[in-house]
Amino acid sequence: MSVIIVGMADLNACKSPGVLKTLGLGSCVGIALYDPVAKVAGLAHIMLPDSKAISNNQNHAKFADTALIKLIEAMQKLGAKKISMKAKIAGGAQMFAFNATSESLRVGDRNVEASKKVLREAGIKLIAEETGANFGRTVELYADDGRFLIKAIGQAVRTL
Amino acid sequence: MSAKSTSVENLFSDMHLDILKELGSMGTAHAATALSKMVNKKVTMPVPRVAWMDFQDVANFVGGPENIIVGILVSLSGNIQGMMMSLMELESAHRIVELVIGTPPPEDTLQFGEMERSVVEEVGNIMLSSYLSSLAGLTNSQIKPSIPYMCVDMANAILSVPASEFGRMADKMLFIESKIDVENIQFSGCFVLVPNLHSFFRILRGLGAE
What we know:
heterodimer, A: alpha+beta, five-stranded mixed sheet, 10 strands, B: alpha+beta, eight-stranded antiparallel sheet, 7 helices, 8 strands, globular
C-alpha cells in the first residue's frame, strides 16, 4: 500500500488501495474527500481561510476556497464524481494559549469555518470532524474505505 | 519553484542578509551574557547562521515534521508587529532545565512541571529579547514583545502558527540558527522572525534599503 505524503499548503488524490497522509496539522486544516463508489480519496492541507484576502495567493493548495476546487478536479481526473463525495475534516487547533482576540491568532478557528463554508457551497456533505483544541494532529486517509485516522502525541488513535 | 516565490523575499539582497547576520551576532552576544548570568557559568555562542528558509526546511532543521519540539512564541507590537518564535528539540529543553535547576525532568516527559516550564520559557524569553533589542536598535524602532507562550508538540503543528502568519505574503521565514555551549554541554535550536507586511518594510528601511 503506497502512502503519499501531502505537505503543508499542498494537496493530492489517489485511488484504492492508496493512502494519503499529512503530518502535524496545527492551525492548518486537513480536508479529506472520499468518493466511495469510485474509491478515490483526496486530501488538502490548507493554511489560510481565503485566497481573495491576500496578494500572495499563487499556491492554490494554501487556501480553503481554492484548494477545494483543485482537490475536486484532481479526484475527478481519477474517476471520482462530485455528487458521490463526502468530506471529513481535522485540525484547526489553537497551538498557543493566547487570550488575544487578534485575527491572525485565531487562524485555526477561521480555517475550520472557511473549510465548512466552502464545502457547503460546493454541495459536499461534511460527515465527520475533529477540530479545535490545542494539539497537533497527523492524519491518514485510506482510499479503500475512506477511513480517516487521527494521531496526536500521547493520545490513542481515532478513526473518523 | 518560481510560481511560488514572491517579491517579498527577493527584496532582501545579500547586503540585507549581511546586516541581519550582524543582528544575529549582536543578539547572540547579548543572549550569551544574559544566559551566563542566569546559570552562573561560562556561556559561548558561535555567530549564528541567518537565512530565508522555507517552513518545511525549518521543520527538518528541528528533527522533522513530526518530531516533538518546544516552541516559545512572543507576539510583537509597537513599531514592528508580528511574531518571533524560539524552537528547540525536547532534549535541549530538558538539558536547559537540568542546567538551571540541577535536576532534569523525567526522560520522556511532555508535560513540564510548573517550575520546569517557567525555566524553559524564561530562557527562551531571554534569547528572544536579546534578538529583539538588537533588531530595535538596528531599525530604530520600538518593539514590545508579549509574555512568552510555550507549546510542546509536533514541529509542523507548532510551525503552522508563524507559517500561516507569514503565508499571507511569502512562503519563507527569516531563520536564525542558535548554538549554545555551556561548559562543553551544547544545545541547539533556532529562531524564526515573522514580521507583518508593514513591519517588514520598516525593517528593510531600517537596514538602509530603498
